[in-house]
Give the backbone structure.
Amino acid sequence: QVQLVESGGGLVQAGGSLRLSCAASGRTFSNYGMGWFRQAPEKEREFVAAISWGGGRTLYADSVKGRFTISRDNAKNTVYLQMNSLKSEDTAVYFCARDQLTVRPKGVAGTPNLYDYWGQGTQVTVAS
């Protein structure tokens, strides 16, 4: 059983920064791509960013491109989401998730249905 635990959320002023972390259990973390998603009240869960199993490929939602950076440290079984220039519309619960496909040969998984394990989420609130 894989466990994903997010941390780093909180309240920040618009224009500020936060770094989210997602710590994963298990010995095969480096074989799987990871993604970040978010869900605002009364909205569907949406894709934010994803990174391939080796870290060489990334994908971002247009709404966060240029402001957010996803990275991973396979030695620490951790994936990060650096969020800069935060806006009020970034307010949401942020979830990390694991790609259901081991060693995805190309691309990264960009939709929720391609992920099989999810964390419990961490709240990010951006005050305008």
Observations:
- The radius of gyration is 14 Å.
